[in-house]
Amino acid sequence: MYSWKDADDRIAIVQMNAELRHAQLDLLSAQCATDRLRLRFSVEDLARYGERDVLRKAIGTAVALSDYYLSIQNQLPTDTLPITESQIRDAVKAVSDYLWKEREAYRPKGVALTERQQSGLRPFFAEGIVDRIRTVELHGRRVAPPPFYMQAQVMGIDHLPAVSHMASLTFVDVIVFNDLIIERALFHGLVHAVQFQILGLDRYTDLFVRGFLRTNAHFAVPLESHAFALESKFALNPDQHFSVEEQVRLWLREGRY
User: Fold this and answer.
1) Which of 70-84, 131-145, 188-202, 222-236 has the highest mean pLDDT?
2) How far separated are the first and last CA of the chain, in Å rounded?
3) Please, which residues have CB within 8 angstroms of residue 83's CB and are 6 or more apart in sequence?
């Protein structure tokens, strides 16, 4: 078993986490491919008409991966933070108020998407989102950490999202970039804008806060992991169009948020 006190072990642990991040990205790509199947074909049709050898190999791989990661999950330390339902509701309200306040502050400074940006994004997003969204570039300035972070840390909640290091943050229908607009980050921000539109601010915030408290990791929150998965799918093949709204509604119907 590795020990952080051993210098060689520390190097191995860093390498292990780098490999883990690569594995997560590959899994997100596989998830995107599976979502494409789920959107177009029923389980019954796949079972009846899918190539048997390919199906068996895909199912075998999925089961093996599931068993492996579940075995890791069973070894994870139990979350013992004494957070009550009342505290969760207070946290949801604090986050919701923060998102709306930032939206109101940045919206007047925002600019519409350029014609080039709109042209590249319309195959993926409904016209209303593309027209309504506003962007703000901070050119190296940073979005300040939310005011409730200190209180959360006092309660023992750590691993809070480092907003000052993120490429972009979405405040309902305003995407704020800590530096310049990057195409992938813009796509990612628009996915969140679609989630806000479909779920509404209050439900989005409730799902995000509960997801974070459950996973204790920003990237593991389903709303966030879905945005990364769709961003990755877009980056791998920008010419293969899909509807972000359909993807979000699919996850909502299946209770995956």
Assistant:
1) 188-202
2) 35
3) 155, 157, 213
Provide the pairing of β-strand 168-171 with 111-112: unpaired
Same domain, 32 and 131: no
Place of tokens 């590959």: 26
* Tokens, residue 175: 């995407």
94 plus 45 within the same structural domain: no
b or e along 154-182 (b: 16 or more beta carbons within 10 Å of the residue's beta carbon)? eeebeeebebeebbbbbbbbbbbbbeebe
Boundary residue ending a domain (48, 73, 98): 73
Strand 134-137 and strand 168-171: pairing? unpaired
Q: By mean pLDDT, which of 61-70, 74-83, 151-160, 171-180 is the weakest?
A: 74-83
Say if residue 24 is in the same domain as residue 122: no
pLDDT given for residue 47 in this prediction: 81
Q: How many domains are contained in the chain?
A: 2
- Regarding whether 89 and 69 lie in a shared domain, the answer is no
Confirm whether pTM is higher than 0.85.
Answer: no
3-class secondary-structure state, position 116: helix
Span of 3-17, 134-148, 209-223 with lowest mean pLDDT: 3-17
Which structural domain, as residue segments, surrounds residue 24? 7-73
